[in-house]
UniProtKB/TrEMBL annotation:
Keywords: Fatty acid biosynthesis, Fatty acid metabolism, Hydrolase, Lipid biosynthesis, Lipid metabolism. Belongs to the thioesterase family. It catalyses: (9Z)-octadecenoyl-[ACP] + H2O = (9Z)-octadecenoate + holo-[ACP] + H(+). Gene3D superfamilies: alpha/beta hydrolase. This is S-acyl fatty acid synthase thioesterase, medium chain. The gene is Sast. It comes from Ciconia maguari.
């Protein structure tokens, strides 16, 4: 089991005495390395775990996931023991925000476990119109150059890296596959059922395409708050924003009744 966990989840800075674990879910095509650096920015009360999705980075030789359920089950079985041990929170950006939501939902429904806080960034609420539009993109028919244009517009890769043909091909494939996987995420909000009771915080870049986030209000009985930070879709890579994010997340965790 432990080997399985090491493959799916890394813990760059071990903090066995931390009050809380922050599980970070990266964006499509990367993010593990950048989020791993967060471990240094948090105080000793927070231990950072980073999820690595199949088909990229250290798991490049593995096939991409079939669907969201496969990813959710894999992450859950890798982390379940840890999550039962002490309080945890989730942070997800873009693709990672949807996967973190799906994992949180599964943990709540199947194990009665819930994060103390959900931090979501650069994504729509899964019950919103914006997410339904994302699900309707004909991704199989979308041309490579259109996927590449999207990557360039959002700033999903450094221009010099896109000069490398192999890197470019792999990135296009990853974004395409992740979009296909997201389209298998089905969540219908029913009137009677509010899935979460934890607080939810949404972060977005001020220059990013607006995300449909208001629907998060209806998904928890906890508080929902919304923040815009300067920048585009990858606003969180700006060192000044990293500081704001990590400080804010730390404050929320430390103020929670742990």
């Amino acid at each position: 089991v432990f080997l399985g966990m090491e493959k799916v989840v890394t813990r760059p800075y071990k903090r066995p005495d931390a009050l809380c674990r922050l599980i970070c879910f990266p964006w499509s095509g990367g993010g593990t390395f950048q989020l791993a650096q967060w471990g240094k920015l948090f105080s000793s009360s927070v231990e950072v775990f980073i999820v690595t999705f199949p088909g990229r980075e250290s798991r490049l030789k593995e096939p991409f996931a079939e669907d969201v359920t496969t990813i959710v089950n894999e992450i859950t079985s890798a982390l379940l023991e840890e999550l039962q041990e002490k309080p945890f929170a989730f942070f997800g950006h873009s693709f990672g925000s949807y996967i973190s939501f799906a994992v949180a939902l599964h943990l709540k429904e199947k194990y009665g476990l819930e994060p103390i806080h959900l931090f979501l960034s650069g994504g729509h609420a899964p019950s919103s119109e914006g997410f339904h539009l994302l699900k309707s993109i004909p991704i199989r028919e979308t041309k490579d150059e259109d996927v590449l244009a999207y990557i360039k517009v959002t700033g999903g890769a450094l221009p010099e890296l896109l000069q490398n043909e192999d890197f470019k091909k792999q990135l296009i494939l990853t974004v395409r596959e992740d979009c296909r996987v997201l389209q298998t995420l089905s969540f219908e909000k029913s009137e009677r059922n509010i899935p979460f009771s934890c607080d939810i915080t949404c972060f977005n870049g001020s220059e990013d395409t607006p995300h449909d986030i208001e629907a998060w209000h209806d998904l928890t009985t906890g508080d929902t708050s919304f923040y815009k930070l300067p920048g585009g879709h990858f606003y969180l890579l700006e060192p000044s924003n990293e500081i704001i994010l990590t400080k804010h997340i730390t404050r929320c965790i430390e103020n929670a009744d742990l």
